[in-house]
Hints:
Blueprint: E1 3-6, H1 13-22, E2 27-31, E3 34-39, H2 42-69, H3 76-87
Parallel strand pairs: 1-2
Antiparallel strand pairs: 2-3
Amino acid sequence: MATCVPVRDMKDTAKFSETVRNADGPVTVTKNGRDEFVVMTSDAYEGIKQELARMKLYDIVFQAERELAEGKYSDYDAFSRELREKYGL
């Protein structure tokens, strides 16, 4: 279940920190009845960053697989030859 607290609850930092640690997910902090920001543990944040990185990597791999299936690739020799010609190496 989502945890939602008013911004005034942050005044007691120890209690607020405990609330965040014990929550099942991110804690939404509200101000005047509206969402102001979201707080989560650093472990939860790192997990989200890792999942995002994993998703980006999968996207790159899937794109490479599509290009390979469509024949949109070049081998190393052709690639290095193009670079040498382009940059006069």
